[in-house]
Structures are given as structure tokens and as C-alpha cells.
Amino acid sequence: MTPAAIPIDAARPAPLWRRLAAMLYDLFPLLGLWMLTAGLWAWASGYDARHPHPLARAGLQLLLLAVSAAYFLVSWIRIGQTIGMRAWRLRLVREDGGGLRAGRAFARFLLALLSLAIAGCGFWYAWFDPGQRTLHDRLCGTRMIRL
Questions:
Q1: Buried residues in 111-131 as b, exposed as e (16+ CB within 10 A)
Q2: What is the pTM of this model?
Q3: Which residues does 26 contact at the CB level (< 8 Å), separation at least 6?
Q4: How far apart are the first and last CA of the chain?
Q5: Quick check: helix, strand or coil at residue 92?
Q6: CA torsion sign, 83 to 84 to 89 to 92?
């Protein structure tokens, strides 16, 4: 179930500060999911945090990344918003105003993650873009709009 298309001509672009506020807000449900995931991982695998095996640590990190991806992908695909985006009245849409499909949402997640890894450079691109889009939005053909 993808959200209904929004007329893109009437949509206002989301300023960078609102996006960052929504990201901060999204950190709270993610922290809860990460703690739950790590606890279940430790219980199921006998993970010893004092003397972790390098492969066990890498496995846990990959699992936490997968949980993060699932949080964003399910939110973006089903309703076009994460919890933080709902609070700040933002929605992620395609260039034509329609909802995202799995491939585009996954590509956006990976590019946004890369943007964060290189000091947020992809996010700062929004300051110079006339539509206030981030680099990963431009590359994926998406835009963040205010509701």
C-alpha cells in the first residue's frame, strides 16, 4: 500500500533544519529497536560483550544495519513517512508526487547512509539546490515535502 500521489506543484520543499529535526526524532525509535535487537542477539547467540569474537561483532553490526534499513524502508514504502517525519509534517515522494517502491527506497537509504558517512556532505547539498533537495534525493528522483 503506497500513499496517494501528492500534486507536486502545490508541495512546499522541506528545509534542511526540519529534515535534521526529523532525523533526530527518528533516533529514539531506532535506539529502542537497536537495544531490543542487541538483547535478542546476545540471548540467542551467547554473545559475550566483554570478549566478543570479531565475527560475532560484525554479525551484530550487520543485523543492526538491517534493522535500521527495515525501519526506514517499511516507513517510506507504506506511508511515505517515518515517525520523525510525521512529527515534523514531512513526506517523502517521487518526483511526480507518488509513493516510493522498494528499489528506489533502498537506493535512497544506501546513498543517505553514504552521505552521513562522509560528514553529511550529501545533506548540505540542500543549501544549494533550488528545490532544497539533498544529493541522495536528487540521485534517486525523490523529494521531501512539507505537509
A1: bbeebeeeeeebbebbeeeee
A2: 0.89
A3: 71, 82, 83, 84, 85
A4: 19
A5: strand
A6: negative
Kindly state the DSSP code that residue 49 receives in the 8-state scheme.
S
Structure letter (DSSP) for residue 133:
-
The greatest distance separating any two alpha carbons of the chain, rounded to the nearest whole angstrom, comes to: 56
What does the pLDDT profile of the chain (147 residues) look like in tens digits? 556 667 666 689 999 999 999 999 999 999 999 999 999 998 888 877 787 788 888 999 999 999 999 999 999 999 999 999 999 999 999 999 999 999 999 999 999 999 999 999 999 999 999 999 999 999 999 999 999
Radius of gyration from C-alpha coordinates of the chain: 17
* Assigned C-alpha cell, 96: 511526480
Count of other CB atoms within 10 angstroms of residue 98: 15
